[in-house]
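Narrative progress, year one. The postdoctoral researcher (J.K.) led the effort to move from monomer predictions toward full complexes, under supervision of the PI. The following entry was the first complex the group processed end to end, covering 488 residues in total.
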Amino acid sequence: MLSKTYTKYIQSLHHKKFRDTENVFIAEGSKVVMELLKSGTISCEMIVGLTEWMQQNEVLIRKYYTGPLQVIEHFELEKISALTTPNQVLAVFKKCKKTTDVKGKLCIMLDTIQDPGNLGTIIRIADWFGIQSILCSEDCADMYNPKVVQSTMGSLCRVEMVYTNLVVWMQKNNSIKTYAATLSGKKVSELKGLTEGIIIIGNESKGISDEIMQLCTQKITIPKTGQAESLNAAVAAGIILSHL
Amino acid sequence: MLSKTYTKYIQSLHHKKFRDTENVFIAEGSKVVMELLKSGTISCEMIVGLTEWMQQNEVLIRKYYTGPLQVIEHFELEKISALTTPNQVLAVFKKCKKTTDVKGKLCIMLDTIQDPGNLGTIIRIADWFGIQSILCSEDCADMYNPKVVQSTMGSLCRVEMVYTNLVVWMQKNNSIKTYAATLSGKKVSELKGLTEGIIIIGNESKGISDEIMQLCTQKITIPKTGQAESLNAAVAAGIILSHL
């Protein structure tokens, strides 16, 4: 049985404000929780799960985690879950450490990516292509939003995320080359072999802001042969990285 | 004021069963509705919208559509909308015509893509790269599911979609080359210039089924340099098509 206090504590973590105060976040579902435990880069505070899930996974969990485990009933999981369909297990993790060094590497910059699913998918894409750092504007979705955590599928703490004022950052780091993904510009296939610089992906409907556009080194584009007006932001990020 | 009968009719269209019986579907939001009207490939039965939206858009709508328009109140839109946050306008469209000829072209085959957002995004990607046909297994999400319609952003009726038993289809059409997206196989960049054949994308968690795998001509893969276990199905589709 989960205490009232702990139930309220987990519910509060659905909100950014409390995640920031407590410096923790929640992850749900067997795959995501196990991946985060295995990653070894992140510290877990508590795991609560249904009886059956605990029985099946306790031995494996104990290889990576020595902290408290608690068995709960389905109705309790429903109370604390941020998912429409709660998925067997929920864990509270400490936030990842932040140390971002972008020099001499390929990185991603996200200007106002607001859909948590898109942000999570982009983190997963970065992890697939070995990109270590993502710079986010301050109005991007929160990386610890439960939906973001869900769609990263465990990649969350393998990619360093920094939230900052992008305009100020670009002005300070103007020796680093930046490539803005737009509807016109140099074809991505012509950038093949690029190993250093920053790929900028813009907002889902408005694209990249004018201020950032003016500071970027080069516009790049994914050539279109059909009629769709635009591509999903995460899909665009995946295509660009696959060509470098 | 929307009649009780018409309110119930639209609500029924949230469900595949009734969309199939009535041969219509709903689209919501200014962008999607306007795009579908402009596409000219699809017939509209009714548009209902908030006063302000109607005032702003009536002249433009009348260029593409001569049927009934109805102004409704916000609480009425909330009743009939399939969205969490209703978005100014909802329209009822007749389903698109189905005529799929895959010979001599590049096409996509989807094996059990169950997430409506993924399906919609893949349709939009296909439209971006000029792919005209998508073959779907019978257990893929319904292309007329409101969430699919939403995420296609108007590309819906520019791409022909056929739902069929893929194994039977592949056995009948065994002269057509098929390329299965997997975690191993030929690098997608080596397929550059391919103008004919079918790219197979598998289920979000299980991948491509064994039966289909055995019938395919060639395995293809997106090279990984990082640690993520997999890529989102729509992102994988986008990356593969961008390399052809």
